[in-house]
Amino acid sequence: MVPFLVAAMAFLAALAIAGWLGAAVLTRHWESGAGAILTVQLPNPGAPSATGAETRLIAVQALLAAAPGVDTADTLSDAQVNALLRPWLGADIKNLAIPIPAVIAVHMAPDEKDLTGLAAQLAKAAPGTIVEDQAAWAGRLGILARSLQLCAGLVLLIVTLVTAAVISVATRSGLAARREAILIVYQLGATDSYIARRFATRVAALAYLGGVIGGLCALPVMFVLATLAAPLAAAPTQD
To answer: Is the pLDDT of residue 84 over 50?
Structure first.
């Protein structure tokens, strides 16, 4: 039974390691990707700004371009906004009776966020502008992912301890079942180290066989999980 038990433990260990690595990748992606993006919604982008010198959209774009800590500020096109809203509204934005605000994706430099001051400047130039910070929910997702990493680590530790216990019990059972044969071999001149090495080699071979079988069985499952998680870990896009 040693190969089957070790195979089951190896299968669980492989899944735990895959879960730990996947959670680590998602954490880095969320915190460095979505967590560094601000969404600026600008109602009536074509209306005059507070100064009247330009449109509200041009005024907001100029403020964002000059704001400290802003790496890029990309205004989404009508096609991009339409692609975002179609699953929710089910229609083209041109056919809607309500005005759709302009959406600007702002990529912030790390550790350089002055959202209060930036929001105040934007609201002064274009009243009604909404600034949404993605870092709050990205941080909560990061905490969730790190919790999953902790759970995966605990599972891996438990699996390792159970595997060691299984191999230990199997070795002791093998020694007890062959007690008479061991005594005869011992009386014929075999040393303790020789007998122990023979048993250890056999149990190690069985455990290795079980580990290989369990690892191979885990590969298809890990491939499917990696395929499902790939869109979540993809590089952030502007649409």
So the answer is: yes
